[in-house]
Amino acid sequence: MELREYTEKELQVIADEVGERQGWDFSRMSTEREPVPWDYIDVVSRFLRPTDMVLDVGTGGGERLLSLADRYRRAVGVDPDPEMLRVARGNAGRHSNVRFLLAPAERLEPLDDGAFDVVLTRHAPAFVPELDRVTKAGGLFICQGVGSRNMANVRRAFNTSSEALYVDAYQTMLSDLAARGWRLVAEGHYDVCYWVKDVPSIVFWFQAIAGANEVPGEFSIAKHYGVINALIQRFGSDLGLETNEHRTLVIARKPDA
Ligand SMILES: C[S@@+](CC[C@H](N)C(=O)[O-])C[C@H]1O[C@@H](n2cnc3c(N)ncnc32)[C@H](O)[C@@H]1O
Prior knowledge:
Layout: H1 8-18, E1 31-33, H2 40-47, E2 53-57, H3 63-67, E3 74-79, H4 82-91, E4 98-102, E5 116-122, H5 128-134, E6 135-146, H6 152-158, H7 163-179, E7 183-196, H8 199-209, H9 221-235, E8 236-237, E9 240-253
Parallel strand pairs: 2-3, 2-5, 3-4, 5-6
Antiparallel strand pairs: 1-7, 6-9, 7-9, 8-9
Helix pairs in contact: 1-8, 1-9, 6-9
The structure holds S-adenosylmethionine.
């Protein structure tokens, strides 16, 4: 990455070129991270059985759920954002065993009690009373979350304070699962260095996650080109802009009937 001051105009041209995120697809970013102890798709694949009914809460564009479609019998992805559902349905392609429905985690009303063998959430809200209701006795919940220390230097630079929100959500989820008798199968955390390798990837990223806690909802180049430059100056190197990726993993099993 070229380490220099970028003008507002230069950054605006880059922002116009990189365009908007489609669904929850970050594949256009050039990044690197330190080795991590688990890979979400790998973990979920190891638990899925070909007979399983799967629910993915906060599915976004369904990218991860669809990538697992050969591993389960049928799946439903829910998201409260109609634009996400539009992208997810477009992404579904040949996977006729996956449906997408409009619903927030807190009100899974279209879904029957005990309908699912496995409930997934990745980087989306988990609401235990509802996920408990729709999971079969003996069923599994697999949740990868964003950790409270995620992107600490970026949060400091933007003056966003999402830490308490993540900690509270995580603790509430664990205590709500325990209160319903769910057994913790595995719990994990990692917090590794993460490099965003070039300026177009940084701009795409900040635009794409604006409003998702770390970057303010009102992010714009006009307002924040100074912050981008300050981050590049302080944390940029040949490797790119260095920040950190903090993730949590919870795997829990519902008690047998
Ligand atoms: C960070 S994205 C993750 C998408 C997807 N799970 C993935 O890992 O690619 C968060 C998703 O949660 C959805 N979401 C926001 N509030 C929600 C809620 N109350 N219930 C369920 N999903 C929600 C958003 O619309 C968005 O699609």
